[in-house]
Amino acid sequence: MDIEVLRRFRFDETRQSYSSKDSILYALGIGFGSDPLSQDELRFTYENDLRAVPSMVNILAHPGMWVKRPELRLGWQKLLHAEQRFDILHPLPPEGEVSAKYRVTGVVDGGAAKGAWLYLRKTLTDAEGRPAARVSSTYMLRGDGGCGMFGAPEPPLAPLPARAPDHVLSHATLPQQALLYRLSGDLNPLHASPELARQAGFDRPILHGLCTMGIACRALISVLCPGAPERLRHMSLRFSSPVYPGETIQTEIFDLGGGEIRFRSRVAERAVIVLDRGRVELAPAMASAPNEMEASR
Fold first, then answer.
1. Residue ranges per domain, the chain?
2. Could you report the per-residue pLDDT of 4-27, keeping only the tens digit for each?
3. Distance between CA atoms of residues 222 and 250, nearest Å
4. What is the pLDDT of residue 173?
5. Which long-range contacts (CB under 8 A, 24 or more apart) does 221-224 make?
6. Which string of b and e fits 126-145 if b means at least 16 CB within 10 Å?
């Protein structure tokens, strides 16, 4: 890569109007609807009283395949998503308009043998001009080590406790899961083309890391804040291994007390951890309103 061009690179502001259909498509892309009789599933896949999945902030106002810009000379074929974080500053409605400002905040060079780490930050603003979310992505550039560095890395994610989880949830993915998920905006051919997947060192197309994160978000909501997805305000994790469409993802949740919640996910068929060092923050639960009998006392 050309580190000086990358340092000076500026993104155009990205805007997106999204509809209830877009929110439903995203939810279907991360597996909601597998039980069409479940009210918890319909909450995200049926337009009546529709809710947005919090992790949808990851894909709103997507910048496109900017890593293929020829002046950057990035080896995008060998790019892997390493870490992801988001903070929701204002609850995400199921339809609306957002704008996004992106910037590369730093590159850490691990040398020619190890590659480099690129840090990208997105700030989402809603139609009223309110900050809606902050999203940070870390990418491993396996073919671009030894090219220089600038900026600073994101804070490290802490390891999980060495004990059994408090909750374990399993979600099966479809063989066509990546083809469905990519319709929400990430059209990287690594997730669709068998030929390009082989060139990148994989037997077949892999699932988007952000799709795996969305599936973990689905599990977290069902355990931690069922019926109130807007309470999930922060989610961060490390992508430790790829998932192949059709595999089963098991999400393990650790409640450490004092509001400290950690998680990881593994592929059941291969017993491989695919999401690690996960962390979640929840907004306090709203106190329920008194019923008529209580109010009359």
1. 3-295
2. 999 999 999 999 999 999 999 999
3. 14
4. 97
5. 221/53, 221/54, 222/40, 222/169, 223/167, 223/169, 223/253, 224/253, 224/261, 224/280, 224/282
6. beeeeebbbbbbbbbbbebb
Residues of the chain with pLDDT under 70: 287-297
- Residue 259 DSSP one-character state: T
Q: What is the DSSP letter of 92?
A: P
Q: Which two tokens stand for residue 259?
A: 């509001």
Distance from C-alpha of 63 to C-alpha of 156, rounded to nearest angstrom: 25
Structure tokens at 3: 């580190």
**Adjacent-strand bridge partners of 281:** 234
Q: What is the pLDDT of residue 292?
A: 39
DSSP state of 285: P
Q: How many CB atoms lie within 10 A of CB 226?
A: 12
274: β partners: none
Q: Among residues 42, 38, 77, 55, which one has the least CA distance to residue 212?
A: 55
Cβ burial, residue 174 (10 Å; 0-12/13-18/19+): middle
How far apart, in whole angstroms, are the C-alpha atoms of residue 108 and residue 174? 36
Tally of CA atoms within 13 A in the half-sphere of 40 that contains its CB: 15
Q: Count other C-beta atoms under 10 Å from residue 284's C-beta.
A: 7
- CATH number, domain 3-295: 3.10.129.10
Task: Give the predicted TM-score (pTM) of the model.
Answer: 0.90
Phi/psi of residue 228, each to 5°? -140, 60
Q: What is the pLDDT of residues 85-106, one digit of tens each?
A: 999 999 999 999 999 999 999 9
Report which DSSP code applies to 50.
Answer: -
C-beta separation of 216 from 232 below 8 A:
no
Residues present in the chain in total: 297
Distance CA 152, CA 107 (A): 7
Q: What percent of the chain has pLDDT over 70?
A: 96
